Amino acid sequence: MEAIRLLNAGVSGRQIVKRLGLKSDGLIYTWRKHLRNGDYYRLSQPQGKQYKYNKGVAELPEAERHAREIDEIKQELEVVKKYLIKERLW
């Protein structure tokens, strides 16, 4: 949060990396993007493996997890529909 606060205050990414001892400034911009999108759970994920499709996020309420799963299934269905439509046209 401190890195994002400094970034929003106008401090450059490289200066923040040196000041806070981070590995790269790209990470700070990624964190800021997650905050803008409201994906606060992504900030608490451990380094290394990033959970795809919100798997492993146990601290979310059950209703929220189910809503996200439904959205994922809907998106997958849209991809399948587009594929089938494209196949019919060929």
Kindly describe this structure.
The chain is mostly helical and 90 residues long. It has 2 domains: 1-50, no CATH class; 59-90. Helices cover 62% and strands 0% of the residues. The chain contains 4 helices and no strands. The protein has helices at 2-8, 13-20, 25-37, 62-89. Helix 2 crosses helix 3. The longest helix is centred in the C-terminal third of the chain and has 28 residues, at 62-89. It starts with a helix and ends with a helix. The relative contact order is 0.08. The mean pLDDT is 80.
Q: What key attributes describe this structure?
A:
0% strand, 62% helix, 90 residues, Transposase, Homeodomain-like_sf, 2 domains, mainly alpha
Order of helices and strands: HHHH
Q: What fraction, in percent, of the residue positions are helical? A: 55-70%
Strand content: under 5%
> Which class best fits the helix and strand makeup?
mainly alpha
- Count of DSSP E strands? 0
Largest sheet: none
Overall geometry comes to: elongated
Low-confidence stretches: none
Organism: Companilactobacillus tucceti DSM 20183
InterPro entries: Homeodomain-like_sf
Protein name: Transposase
